[in-house]
TrEMBL record:
Protein name: Alpha/beta hydrolase
SUPFAM superfamilies given in the database record: alpha/beta-Hydrolases
Domain of life: Bacteria
Keywords: Hydrolase
Amino acid sequence: MEVSLREDYLDEVQGRGRRYFRGWVPEGAPRAVLQIAHGMAEHSGRYDDFMRFLAGRGIAAFCMDHAGHGRSARTQAEYGFFGDEGGMAAAIGDMRRFTQWLSGAYPHIPLILMGHSMGSFMVRQYLAQDASALNGAILMGTGGVNKQVGMGIMLAKLERLRIGRMGRSKLIDKLAFGGFNKPFAPARTPYDWLSRDEAMVDAYIADPACGFAFTAQGYLDLFELNRAVNSIEWARKLPPRLPLLLVSGDQDPVGGMGEGVRQVADWLKATGHGRVALKLFPGARHEVLNETNRQEVYEAIACWLERVLER
């Protein structure tokens, strides 16, 4: 099937800038549309291979660069900064505006929302607010309760006072990511926790739009989001009939080596959500779309999408 790249910009919800997006679409009308919310300190271009794969199956797939990421950041100084107070809420508002754009561009076509890592937490907040425009959601590389998030919030507030909203703190970086590589010692790079595929890790390190430190305000936004969506009360806010797929590696430190992902699935099932699927890939680390078995991951997601479309 012929597929093509589509890219453009949308005005962001606060009216202060524009958000870049890209997508791969099949020839003719797609059978479904997948909207992707990427992870922390990366960008939409890293999803091209996966989006092309889906487009080849007749599913249009799009990803937008969040505020402070990729081409949505006007300068590198904006990397890792969502905005002043309410920046994360505005970023989730940008996602909702993108959903509206996709619904207008592809009317009456099923729309599924997927988030990876930080994007999965953003999707979780999105779903708790209003999921009426969606036919399903995928949470990839997500996690459960983080016992250090309270300390992270306190530290981010203190560092914000010390260095300002746009300042960057090595202390916060260490708290947030310092332990992720420990299970993989002796580590070849600081990012071995991302994938077993060394070429993918090296590509991430070589990409100037990846791996940057968040600002103090950006970390505060991230930590507060993590706390907001990590309880059974969050699960009660979701539509009980919405199809949900949780997919991660069982060696992903963000997901507590699978335990945090199971915790999220348990909250959903305990609150009456009857269409929850959980898939943990043995040996896989954080970026399952960039893992050594990524074709298996692609196929598993495609199969789940097919089941959603059949229903």
